[in-house]
Amino acid sequence: MNATKIAPSILAADFANLQHDIEMVNKSQADWFHIDIMDGVFVPNISFGMPVLQAISKHAKKTIDVHLMIVEPDRYIQTFADLGADNLTVHFEACTHLHRTLQAIKAAGMKAGVALNPHTNIQLLEDVIQDIDLVCVMSVNPGFGGQAFIENTYTKVRALKELIISKKANTLIEIDGGVTDKNAKALVEAGADVLVAGSFVFKSKQPIETIANLKEITQK
Ligand code: DX5
Ligand code: ZN
């Protein structure tokens, strides 16, 4: 089994000191940078866009995991590849032709991810799971950091793990929203491979230690 990956969400960083927070993640035991792009249409919030991602890319020394909470993500696939995204995750609910979108992400040289809103059933991925590198299970309603974790996530993660095994797929399971040291271990036991953590990391007094602690308690 591979070690659980920890992906601090830059949405909770200090945007006036972004370079400082990026260097912190570089130095820490974190595995990925999780970057939330929101358009104010798919979700009721606007985060940041291309110039900020470009600035992050310049300093980030780890995998850049971009989570698009936008409508019509196909319009921007090549742009995100050019900006240095390693993983590009689109929302199931935002894609009319999901299979085509996944192929386009891979053709642009990135890993292809699909995020599911809390109400979206895992079985909807049955016919496309083998084409997905990463499923991001939303454990809050997307749009904001700092929300409370939705407990039904465990059931979804277990169902997703079963689906991945039954289809012999090679898909990672990422959990996004409300992750803390209280639920991290149980999420990994349910089948999670990657844990996104925003507020829990950046609002803590010693983020490097917080990341190290998450890493330690999620050892498989
Ligand atoms: C929510 C975002 C999350 C968010 C997580 O829409 O997709 O990545 O930044 O933040 P926390 O860990 O604070 O719930
Ligand atoms: Zn996210």
Describe the structure.
The protein has a single domain, classed as TIM Barrel. It is 33% helix and 20% strand. The chain has helices at residues 18-27, 50-59, 77-82, 98-107, 153-166, 184-190, 199-202, 207-217, and strands spanning 5-8, 32-38, 63-69, 87-91, 111-116, 134-138, 172-176, 194-197. The longest helix is centred in the C-terminal third of the chain and has 14 residues, at 153-166. It is globular. Zinc ion is lined by residues 9, 34, 36, 67, 176, 196. Zinc ion binds next to strand 2. Belongs to the ribulose-phosphate 3-epimerase family. Catalyzes the reversible epimerization of D-ribulose 5-phosphate to D-xylulose 5-phosphate. The active site is at 36 (proton acceptor), 176 (proton donor).
Spell out the blueprint of helices and strands.
Elements: E1 5-8, H1 18-27, E2 32-38, H2 50-59, E3 63-69, H3 77-82, E4 87-91, H4 98-107, E5 111-116, E6 134-138, H5 153-166, E7 172-176, H6 184-190, E8 194-197, H7 199-202, H8 207-217
Parallel strand pairs: 1-8, 2-3, 3-4, 4-5, 5-6, 6-7, 7-8
The structure holds D-xylitol-5-phosphate and zinc ion.
